TrEMBL record:
Keywords: Chloroplast, Membrane, Plastid, Transit peptide, Transmembrane, Transmembrane helix
Family statement: Belongs to the RETICULATA family.
Top-level lineage group: Eukaryota
The species this protein was found in: Fraxinus pennsylvanica
A GO CC term assigned to this protein in UniProt: chloroplast membrane
InterPro entries: Cofac_haem-bd_dom, RETICULATA-related
Protein name as annotated: Haem-binding uptake Tiki superfamily ChaN domain-containing protein
Membrane topology: Multi-pass membrane protein
Lineage start: Eukaryota, Viridiplantae, Streptophyta, Embryophyta, Tracheophyta
Haem-binding uptake Tiki superfamily ChaN domain mapped to chain residues: 56-276
Amino acid sequence: MSPAEIEKQTQKVVSSTAEGVTTPPPSEVEEVINSRIYDATVIGEPMALGKDKRKVWEKLMNARVVYLGEAEQVPTRDDKVLEFDIVKNLMKRCLEADRPISLALEAFPCNLQGQLNQYMEKGIDEETLKSLVTHWSAQRWQEYEPLLSYCRDNGVRLIACGVPLEVLRTVQAEGVRGLSKSDRKKYAPPAGSGFISGFTSISRRSSIDINFPNQSTPFGPSSYLSIQAKVVEDYTMSQTILQAVTVGGSNGMLVVVTGASHVKYGSRGIGLPARISRKMQKKNQVVILLDPERQNIRREGEVPVADFLWYSGARPCNRNCFDRAEIARVMNAAGWKREALPQDLQKGLDLGLVSPEVLQNFIDLEKYPIISKLTHRFQGFRERLLADPKFLHRLAIEEAISITTTLIAQYERRKENFFEELDYVTTDTLRGIVVDFFTVWLPAPTLSFLQIADDIDAPDSMEALKGLLGSIPDNAFQKSLAGKDWNSNHRIASVLVGGLKLASVGFISSIGAVASSNILYSVRKFLNASISGKQRNKRSPILKTALVYGCFLGTSANLRYQVIAGLLEHRISEQFEDQTFLVNMISFVARTINSYWGTQQWVDLARYTGLQARKSEEIPFPGPDSSNNAALECNISEDANIDEMNSQ
């Protein structure tokens, strides 16, 4: 498509969107969350910008062209999430500044500009547009669809700037010489215009001279055909971008989404920023690399690879994921040495996975002697406290609710025999404390920096099992950590694995509690022979009780505690993290309601499975579901015997 045609159609889109799109009212600008941004222009390692992103947005708003360079060799959906967030934020700022904004996409060949215009005018729907890019995978369309819909609904002009597929394939197979004369004039730069010494002279060389050593195929990453294809892409996109910038006016902004290799700063002058800078000042362009695979140290005199490096919260980087200067400041302010940290934190610092905020949380926890001993001696406590500094508060709330309601329920059930049967009360309560601990412990989110594969002493089967468990979150609602990319399958697996763990806890604890209760009953019967003659009902079956109770914990209790620990206390409560009292009250109320509701579920299940007969006697006070009241209900036959003895 010629520049005149592009200008004509883009002007049509501008006028149509101005008439047909209702401009949303200005609203408070939201920062892109759950991401890490680094200034790549500094000397040395890229510098993390922390929570204050104003420098980034100010520089972006001063630019006319913003490049978003995404991964090419291994595409990632995290890039699309970042692109969507950045475009939304720039749209809001441009709206407040009364600036038009456009979005150029390399993914759409430039010969589809007319169809993109129809899509913007709502002349065609998503399915029709999707049918025009049949070379895309279904997953790629799903990743682009939210961004396309947002641009259409908010009047962000869409520009197709990619090379037509048939042109690109011809160059990859035959080089520029394979193009027709008209296509060569449209898509290939003139000889000697900025790429080595031009295509014509090099194309006359033999294939041995053209291809690099050890190159077995005519087209590949190191072949000259691939270089020609890249230059054709850069030239075509640069011409389209320059035309779009002209149409947008001196006040407009153009966001370009393309592969990272096309926008990196370099000395050759064949990339997009270098080509555009010949027609426009370089300071009017900003390059952002999305989730780059590594961070390189920039030395004096070297050109930076980009202006900013932008990582999503779930993506790792091979160097300095967090600002080491800020980490050093936190360590120095607390008077800590690196050697005094636990091994996993030291390794996390080496891998660039420990943020200054996490390090500060650990140092704050060290101020309390008891917590300090727990965090140093038990890695599980450390991992949970780093992920949620209020983990011990949650545990204390759950145990307090459990013990209190269980003792009340026990007293209401046993009445005047409460102190005489203190052995049963103690057994049930201790079992409840243990199981309540695990119902809080297992679904709690964790933050670990140890590599599971480092355990070289473990057998292969154990390594495989640990690797599987280490690849899923501890809670279905846990936020993705650096280096982790949890999808829906991982989160479903975490529910299943958590259910198996709780079921095992319930099975073992139930066998222990019922067995100990039976032993105590035998001791009491030996000491008081009259009890044997007054027994009317059989005692609780150990195996059946353990199976039912284990299934109950693995399903109902597991799901409820996953929601409380992951959704309510890990996500929602973070919105009020500065209001400690409110967060604790939310946790207390939620866990109290959960205990009451869980008790009702257990009573119904116990009756349905025959562990509790349907009798006129009802439990006056429903205690917590997690174990204390479960223990009380598991021994319901025993309680019935006591009631019968009392009535006699």
